[in-house]
Every structure is written in C-alpha cells, then in structure tokens.
Write a structure and sequence with these properties.
Shape: flat
Helix content: over 70%
Low-confidence stretches: 387-391
Number of strands: 0
Number of helices: 24
Largest sheet: none
Strand content: under 5%
Distance between the termini: 129 Å
Length: 699
C-alpha cells in the first residue's frame, strides 16, 4: 500500500518475528530472523508472479477491446460520410428549389405590383368621383373610427388634386382641400385629447399619420403648449424648465419619429417666451432706477441661464447643440450685455464716491484740493530740502484719513465687479473691461483715498523746529502698508486671471507699478520729514534740559547723578519712536528707517557734545550719558548705529584720560582710523586743554 517505505517494512517484519528484537526480554536470534526473511522473500516472489500473470491477462483483454473499438469507429466514419453526401445532395436540391421559388416570386411580384397599383388607383378614382359628385358615401369617410385610413386617402387625393388644372377642377380641388383641413383638425384634436389622457400609444399613432400632413408642425406646437401647462407654478422658473425638459426628454422619443427636433423646439419656446419674459420683468424694473440691483439681477439671471444651458447639453438636440443654446441665451441678454460695462463703470464710480464721501462726512472733514503746480510745487521742494516753515502745517488731530472699512468696501465692490465682468463680458472684450474696472479701483482707492491721506499727512507734518509736535505720519505709513497688501492681493486673485493671456497684462502691471512708485515717493518724503521732526524734538529736549554746569560742576567731589536729566528724556523719547517705527513698518523697511534715524541721532549727540567744556568729573558724566545713549542705540538692532555710538563712547574717553596716556588712547583699536582733527576737537573740549602739559602731550 502507498506510501510504501522499504526500511519501515523490513523493520516491522523484524519486530514481528520471535527473536528478531529485544521485546519482552527475549534474546536476539539471527537464524530465526534469517529464516523468516527467506520465507518472506519466497512469499513475495510467489505473489509477484501471480500479479504479473494477472497484469498480462488484463493487457491482452485491453488490446482486444481496443481493436474492436477501432473497428467500430471506422464503421461509424463510413456511415457519417454516406450521410454527409446525402446532406450535400439535399442542400443542392433545396437551393435549386429556392432559386425557382424566388424567380417565381419575382414574376408574381412583377404581375402583382401593377395590379395593386391599379387597384389602388381604382380606389382613389372611386373616392375622387365621390368628391366630384359632391356626396361622400364611402364608409371610410363616414366612420369616425376609420380616421387613419381616411387620412391616408385624403392625403393622396390632395397630392393628386394639386396636379390638376384649376379651371376644370377648381370645385373638386376645394372640396378635397376642405376635407384635408377637416381631417387634419380632427387628428390634431385627437392628439390633444390623447395627450390630456396620457395615452402615449394613441399619441404615437396620430403623430405618425400627421407626419405627412402640412399641419404636423401644428401638432408639435400643441404638444409643446400642453407640456408647459402647470409646469411653471413655482418661483424658480429655471428649475421648473429643467424638470420639464427632463420629463419631456423621456417621453418624446416614444411619440415622435424626430424627438430631437421636438425637444429643441420646446427648449426654444421656453427660452423665447418664458425665460425672456421673466428676465425682462426682473431687469427692466431696476434698469434705470437702481443700478446695483440691476447688475446683481443681471449677473444672477445670466448665471442661472447658463447653468440651465449646461443641464440641457445632456439631451440630444441635434448636431450643434452648443451653438443652438448659445444663440438662445444671446437673444435673451444681447440688449443688456451690449452696454453692460458702461453700467458697471457708472455704478462703480457713483458707489465709490458715496463710500468715500460717507467716510469723510463721518469725520466731519471737508476734502481739500491738493495744490499743484507753480508756487505750491516750489514751496514743497524748498520745504523738503531746507525744512523751513514755508506755511502753516495742517493739524489733523491725529486722524490718518485712512480707513480699512472704506478699503474693504471698495475692494468688495471691485471684486463683485470683476466677477460680473468675467461672466457677462464677451471673451474678446474681457481684458479691456477688466482694465477699466481696475482703473476705477486705482482712481478711488489709490488716488482719492490713499494718495489724499498721504498728501494730508505730509501737510500735517510740522516743521523740524516745532516744539512738542505730534507725529502721526507713521500711523499713515502703517495703514497705507496694510492697504497695499490688500490691494495687491486683489490684483493677483481677481484681476490677473482675467488679463493673464492678453496685451492688457503689461498695461495693468505698468499702471500698478506707477501708482506704487508714486506712493513710495510720498511715503519716503513723509518718513524723512518725520525723522527730521524727531531730531528736532530731541534738540528741543537737549536745549531745555542740558545745562553747562552738567559737565563742569562747581563741586567736583559732590556729583551724585549717574547721567544727566537731558540724557534720560532723550533716551525715553528715542525708545518710543523706535517702537513706533517697528509697529508701523515691516520687512527691510524697518531696518532702513531705523538706520537713518540712528545715524541722525548719532550726529545730533555728537554735535551736541561739541558745544560744552568738560572738567574731569564732567567728562565722566559725559561718558555715562554716551553709555546710556549707546544702550538706547542697541534697541535699534542695527550694527552701524551701535558701531557709531561705540566710537563716540571711545572719543569721550579723551575727556578724562590722563595727559600722559592720550597718545596711547588715540592709537587704540576704535580711534586709530579716525581723522586726527576729530580727535583733536574732542581733546580741545577739556578745561585743562590750555595747559602746556596737555597741549605738549597731544601734539
């Protein structure tokens, strides 16, 4: 038995043989095991011979049966060949008979067709005679249930009557035409009744009969009219139209042989009647009285109409349905789209003017005209270069005349205008129209609002020698910077997609660049004058608070202060201005302005220190003041400014150093590269400079 393993078989045989193993304490007996193996081999040989004889017998039997089966197959093949020959003979005979039958059928048809035509002509002549006699007796004309047969006959008679001469057959022709018209009306009435009953199969039959009549188009009109009965009961005419067309699209193919034409005619009727009337009612109401509502309605109606058109594109409307639907939309809106951009620009202008005026009214501010040309320009240039008070400054009372609410409103109006422009403009006019809207934004946001605020802010900057001047121009800078970010975002998000592939792109970019450069010039001018005012305020503080005795005290041994009161107030003022600059600007502008302020601050302190004479203790106090100024300069976080004050601090050491060490200090790291005249000027400030010893050591 499978699986057979020889080693296991021998092992089992050895264990079963007494003395073949060590089971039960028996001793191993090799002779008995050998004898058992010999006997078992003989048994296996006998078994093998028996099985071999059985196999040979089965093989012989199998060969015999194979021969018998092969003989039987050969006999079946012969029988099959005979049957196949019989089938071929039968097929040839059938083909011969079929050919004869077809020939006979052709002959019969050749005889029957003229006969049928003759019979048909005879019937038509019979019916024609009834019209000649003026009395219709045939059942086909009197029985209302045979209207289909009557329609077929009258349609043929109508065609024949058209070929007859009018003078001889005028009366019969009029009778046939009258009957033709009556049957046509009956069929249309039957179609109408079937439609009201919802009998699709009857509608299909009648429509098939009417297909050959002139009134078939009237049948279609009736179907379209009845389809719309009760279909427009809700407020949303566009949704009603979409639902109606979906319902008719499923039904029209079961009724008419040309469903795409019927559906297209239904859609045309909806657009030219329902939608055009609805659009006119919605737009004409506000066209002259309310431009805002008119534009909103125009955008909404046009959008909903194009969305409806997109839904209708799913239906089979013929070959060029895109052009068909586009023409329908254009027919509705053409009178409104022709002058759309003029209405848009007019509305934007009036709306923007109103937004700005409402803001200035809320501030009780009357916009002043900004003087230009001639003397005004000359005064402005002189004031920029000399900081001379060439006229009284305008007191703005801290008002920047910039409003984020105004800006957001203007940008929102412009955003909506861009959206309407994208939807309502012809593709060829889109870049041009978008540029006009952008020009409106530049005029009212940049020129009328930002530029006016900058001009007012510039006029409000006091002269540099004014005392206790309030500086609000940095607030203008801060708000203008925020507004520019919003302006730039709208430019990129809403204008760029409309002009990106047109020549107007370069024109818009140039216009934007020009307006920004114009604003930057005024911002730079205002910041420069503001910095001058800051320095002027510091001068006033120093002039008012700094005393000559600060640096040349009467009692050198009784100086209790660490730094002067003037230094404290100046540092406090500077720190406030630095913080204000950081809050008003961003990016590299902060560092640029702070560096300019720091350089001017250093120059002021340098020139201020040159005005006094210093005793030894006074020189120490000056060093303490400069150390405090240097600490203040660290708030600028500008390396150049800190370096300038480090050098100034080193120069102040010349005020207190012993005469013998002057040369060593002057050749130190921080002072070695300075001009000798500068070093000399500081040494001259010492009260002991006139002593021969000091002059000798420094020379």
């Amino acid at each position: 038995q499978e699986p057979f393993v020889a080693d296991e078989y021998i092992e089992r045989l050895a264990w079963r043989t007494p003395g073949g193993g060590s089971r039960g304490g028996e001793a191993f007996d090799p002779k008995r095991l050998l004898e058992e193996f010999v006997n078992h081999i003989q048994e296996l040989q006998v078994m093998d011979e028996r099985i071999q004889r059985k196999v040979e017998k089965l093989e012989q039997q199998c060969q015999k049966e194979a021969k018998e089966f092969a003989k039987k197959v050969q006999e079946l093949q012969k029988s099959n060949q005979v049957a196949f020959q019989h089938f071929q003979e039968l097929d040839e005979h059938i083909s011969y008979v079929a050919t004869k039958v077809c020939h006979l059928g052709d002959q019969l048809e050749g005889v029957n067709t003229p006969r049928q035509r003759a019979v048909e002509a005879q019937k038509l002549m019979k019916y024609f005679n009834e019209f000649l006699d003026g009395e219709l007796k045939s059942d086909v004309f009197t029985n209302s249930e045979k209207i289909k047969e009557a329609a077929d006959i009258i349609q043929k008679l109508h065609l024949i009557a058209q070929e007859l001469p009018f003078d001889r057959f005028s009366e019969v022709k009029s009778k046939i035409a009258s009957k033709y018209h009556d049957l046509e009306c009956q069929l249309i009435q039957e179609f109408t009744s079937a439609q009201r009953r919802g009998e699709i199969s009857r509608m299909r039959e009648v429509a098939a009969v009417l297909l050959h009549f002139k009134g078939y188009s009237h049948c279609v009109d009736v179907y379209i009219k009845q389809c719309q009965e009760g279909a427009f009961l809700r407020n949303d005419v566009f949704e009603d139209a979409a639902i109606l067309c979906q319902r008719v699209n499923k039904q029209v193919g079961e009724i008419f042989s040309n469903p795409e034409t019927v559906l297209a005619k239904l859609i045309q009727n909806i657009f030219e009647v329902k939608l055009q009337s609805y659009v006119k009612d919605q737009l004409e109401e506000h066209r002259k009285s309310d431009a805002e509502q008119y534009l909103k309605n125009l955008y909404d109606l046009y959008t909903r109409t194009t969305n409806l058109s997109s839904k209708l594109m799913e239906f089979n409307l013929g070959t060029d349905k895109q052009t068909f639907l586009s023409k329908l939309i254009k027919a509705i809106f053409i009178s409104y789209l022709e002058n759309y951009i003029e209405v848009e620009i007019g509305y934007l202008k009036s709306r923007s003017t109103m937004i700005l005026q409402r803001y200035y009214d809320s501030k009780n501010h009357q916009k002043r005209s900004i003087g230009t040309g001639g003397i005004q320009d000359l005064k402005e240039r002189l004031r920029q270069r000399t900081n001379l008070p060439l006229g009284p400054s305008i007191d703005t009372h801290g008002e920047t005349f910039l409003s984020q609410d105004v800006v957001v409103n203007l940008l929102q109006e412009t955003k909506q205008a861009f959206e309407r422009c994208h939807r309502l403009s012809d593709p060829s006019d889109l870049p041009k129209n978008a540029f006009r809207i952008f020009s409106m934004l530049v005029e009212f946001l940049c020129t009328e609002h930002i530029d006016y605020a900058l001009e007012t802010g510039l006029a409000g900057i006091p002269s540099s020698d004014s005392k206790n001047a309030n500086l609000y121009f940095l607030d203008v800078v801060h708000q203008a910077n925020t507004i520019f970010h919003l302006f730039d975002k709208q430019f990129n998000d809403h204008l760029m997609p409309l002009i990106s592939s047109s020549p107007k792109l370069s024109e818009c970019l140039q216009k934007k660049k020009d307006i920004i450069e114009q604003m930057e010039v005024k911002l730079d001018m205002g910041i420069d004058r503001t910095l001058n005012c800051m320095i002027g305020q510091m001068k006033h503080i120093l002039a008012a608070e700094q005393k000559k005795t600060d640096f040349k005290p009467e009692d050198e041994n009784n100086v209790l202060i660490q730094y002067t009161n003037a230094c404290v107030k100046v540092c406090g003022y500077v720190r406030k201005q630095v913080e204000k600059i950081r809050n008003s600007m961003d990016g590299k502008n902060v560092d640029t302005v702070l560096m300019e302020l720091g350089v001017r601050f250093h120059r002021l302190i340098y020139e201020h220190l040159q005005q006094y004479s210093y005793s030894c203790m006074g020189g120490m106090l000056a060093i303490c003041d400069v150390a405090e100024y240097r600490k203040c300069a660290k708030d600028f976080k500008i390396a150049l400014v800190l370096q300038l004050f480090d050098t100034l601090h080193a120069l102040c050491n010349l005020l207190v150093v012993a005469p013998d060490n002057l040369k060593q200090v002057c050749s130190g790291e921080q002072l070695a590269n300075l001009d000798k005249n500068i070093l000399h000027s500081f040494v001259q400030l010492r009260v002991d400079y006139r002593s021969a010893r000091l002059a000798r050591h420094f020379s």
